[in-house]
Amino acid sequence: MKKLFIIFLFLQGRAWAQIDPARITIARDSFGVPHIFAPTDPEVAYGLAWAHAEDDFANIQLLVLTGKAQLGTVLGKAGARVDYVVQLLRCRELVDEQWSTLSPDFVALVSGYVEGLNAYAKAHPREVKHKKAFPFNEKEYLTSVVFSLSVFCGVDKLLPQILDGRVATIPGFQTEGSNAFAIHPSRSRSGEAFLVINAHQPLEGPAAFYEAHVQSEQGWNMLGGLFPGGCLIFHGTNENLGWAHTVNNQDKIDLFELQMNPQNSNQYKFDDQWLDLETRKVKLKVKGIPISINKKLFWSRYGATLKTKRGTFSIRLPANMDCRALEEWYRMNKARNFTEFYRALSMTSLPMFNITYADRYDTIFYISNGKMPLRNPNPKYNWRGTVPGNVSATLWTKFKPITELPQYINPHSGYLFNTNHSPFLATDSADNLDKNKFDPNDGYELFRNNRSQRVNELIPGNDLISFDQLKSIKFDLQYPQQLQFPYDIDSMFLLDENEYPSLKDIISKFHQWNRKADVDSKGAAIFLLAYSYLAPKLIGSPPRKITKAEAVETYQYVQDYMIKYFGNIDQKLGDIQELVRGNEARSAGGLPDVLAAEYTAPYKNGMRQIVQGDAYICLVGYPKTGLPFIESINAFGASNHPDSPHYKDQMPLFLQQKTKHMTLNKNEVLKNAERIYHPGK
After folding, report:
1. Choosing a second label site near 451 at 20 to 30 A (CA), which of 134, 158, 469, 594?
2. What is the pLDDT of residues 170-215, one digit of tens each?
3. How many Cβ atoms from other residues are within 10 Å of residue 401's Cβ?
4. Would you call 273 exposed, middle or buried from its count of C-beta atoms within 10 A (0-12, 13-18, 19+)?
């Protein structure tokens, strides 16, 4: 009987995916943000796929082609490298193996989303990048998700280190920022819980946040941010609760050096026996190359394996051992209270991301989330480095329950926050967790950063916090009194300007800086250029002090740069740094690691363009009755089409640190909608 019931549920779920677009309503608000309404969750997912494709089909297709391991057909060699890794990690095989473990209602949701993408592609053939991109199926979709989460967990950084010979070997062998805040009603002036969602992501491209609102008659009513190709909201709020993600940096991936058989290069030692590497060939198709490129893939008991001149290495990461992360997000989306939310997290399928939570029921919560393996505690194994891959003692196969992860619920301080810093510094010092009570092999962060230090300055004592005060904290542009960069730059401030007559003026300007990233600040302009000069030289090396000689060299670089491109050193931050969208460029404030952070890249004529930092921002208040009040802003707009009125219509508000009103109220949305239609109409 149980088996029949499961079959019935599965069939029912598949039936949901038989979509009638006439039952789906897309309402575009005055900023072009889509609000999707439909009877069922799969129909809403179909509508979300269609609406998002209208706005950004080009980036969504990159995810589609990734799931098919066909990205090389569009992006050339760079895409082919992605195709290689998708197959190296066996992302599709994982989905095939675990497909039966997925819940029928979640499969139906994915089916609805995929059907929506396929329908849009069929209706807009000229927008399709490659003839093999569509039709797209559910397993290919989840394959792309598994790969994307593996990248978030660091596989894109580790693989080049292995291939370039930059990983540590074992003697005897041959071998991206965000803010989140939750305020308890006891600390708010209005007696309501507050939540701040503030992702520091790329402003454009496949990892840029898109805003949407989805609502079904099956209890799904969620507004927030998602990436291109997302079938649900990654972080945001529903009627009762919400959460914000920030990237965490605990140890999410392990590297093993294999001991290879001197007599057989395809055998590795495991305990007292030689085992054969699993070997297969793949063909990579590259745009512009008339023939396919043949590559070999290797696999050991530890996982994906690479042969290099320095040795043979395997990587093992939880992200490509569980394909249910999206299902966990789905349960989070539909949770009605903290109990249900925590039950969703207990799946431990989402391999990473800090979660900062608030609800209308007087609960705030923070967890350094992840799918954390049960590693061998023997101190001879350096889990943050390279581990021996010749003994079963290092082959972990189980994972920790959620209860063993660092987490807080309703601390006495009344607030929780994360700025990509240590989970053991998430609130007032009296309420912080003791790092010594957690497994050191998990590799949790122990550091502060400038943003966390600044929050400690802005939320002192037991003062009550208003919604507007919280907003001002989120948009704060001030560095803390004591800087927290990993590289000590005190020498820049301590340099005696009289010792360097040719640099005296620029040193003096910098010493007068109030350490605020205002658009009109001259000191901030100098710091921006100094940072852009020093960061590439220092990132990847151990933390240290900037020497006096390096400080002089940096000042000289900044002075020469300003004179070369602008004719003098009397430049403000906004004279050098711009927010650019299409053919429009506007002066902008913000610097790395302030709360309103901005990160730049060279643009033109000496200018620097903001490419990452403050992106999607959402602020939520939870009254005891009624719907939450929501304010949000995105850096540019809802559409990625330059000819759309919503290509950059949020940009002026963003630059003024202002927000727009949003709502979960269907009647209000429909009453004020700019356009209401059905997919395909």
Report:
1. 158
2. 443 333 579 999 999 999 999 999 999 998 989 999 889 999 999 9
3. 9
4. exposed
- pLDDT-derived band of residue 351, with 50, 70 and 90 as boundaries? very high
Q: Measured between alpha carbons, how far is 577 from 294 in angstroms, rounded to an integer?
A: 45
Q: Compute CA distances 25 → 357, 640, 655, whole Å.
A: 30, 21, 32
Digit-coded pLDDT (tens) for 482-526: 999 989 999 999 999 999 999 999 999 999 999 999 999 999 999
CA proximity to 183, closest of 476, 455, 457, 448 = 455
Sign for the pseudo-dihedral over CA of 204, 205, 206, 211: positive
- The answer regarding whether domain 2-175 maps to CATH 1.20.950.20 reads no
Nearest to 72 by CA among 130, 151, 135: 130
- Residue 5 confidence (pLDDT) above 60: no
- Can the peptide bond before residue 135 be classed as cis, meaning omega within 30 degrees of 0? yes
The tokens of 386 are what?
């390279």
Nearest to 423 by CA among 402, 444, 439: 444
Using alpha carbons, select from 583, 641, 575, 588 the residue that is nearest to residue 615: 588
Q: Which 3-state string (H, E, C) describes 28-64?
A: ECCCCCEEEEECCHHHHHHHHHHHHHHHHHHHHHHHH
Angle at the Cα of 635 from the Cα atoms of 629 and 639, rounded to 5 degrees: 95
Buried b (16+ CB within 10 A) or exposed e, 152-178: bbbbeebbeebeeeebebbeebebebb
Q: Which CATH architecture has domain 179-251+323-381+394-467?
A: 4-Layer Sandwich (3.60)
Per-residue tokens: 143 = 């394959």
Q: Which helix (H) or strand (E) holds 131?
A: none
Torsion of CA 412, 415, 420, 425, to 10 degrees: -30
Beta bridge partners of 183: 194, 415
The whole model's pTM is what? Answer: 0.93
Q: Provide CB contacts within 8 A for 274, sequence distance 6+.
A: 261, 264, 267, 268
In angstroms, how far is CA 305 from the centroid of its own chain? 26
Q: Within the chain, what is the greatest distance between any pair of CA atoms?
A: 89
Report the pLDDT averaged over residues 45-57.
98
Q: How far apart are CA 343 and CA 346, in angstroms?
A: 5
Domain residue ranges in the chain: 2-175, 179-251+323-381+394-467, 490-592
Look at the chain and count its residues: 681
Q: Are strands 364-368 and 629-633 parallel, antiparallel or unpaired?
A: unpaired
**pLDDT value, residue 2:** 39
% of the chain residues with pLDDT over 70: 95
Q: What percent of the chain has pLDDT over 90?
A: 87
- pLDDT above 60 (res 16): no
Q: Which residues contact 397 (CB under 8 A, 6 or more apart)?
A: none
Using alpha carbons, list the distances in angstroms from residue 578 to 177, 340, 471, 599: 20, 44, 23, 11
